[in-house]
Amino acid sequence: MPLKSSYSDRLKKTDQSLIALLSDRISLLAASEFPSLDEQLADVAPLLAQAGIPESVWAGVVNSCYASLTPKSATNHVIPRQITIIGGRGRMGRLFKDQLSIVGHNVSVLEHDDWEYAEQLLNQAELVLVSIPIEHTVDVIKRAVKYLASTTALCDITSIKTEPTQAMLEHHCGPVMGLHPMFGPNVKSFLGQKVVVCPGRNDDSFQWLLDLIKSKGGELIFCTAEEHDRMMVIIQATQHFCRFSLGVFLAQAKVDIEQSLTMSTPNYRQEIDIVRRLFSQNPHLCVDIMLATEERCNAISFLANTYGRLARLVVNKDREALIKEFENTQSFFEGKINSFLQPLNTTGIQRDFKPQNIGI
Question: Could you give the C-alpha distances from 104 to 73, 82, 116, 203, 351, in angstroms and in order?
Answer without folding.
Answer: 13, 10, 27, 22, 26
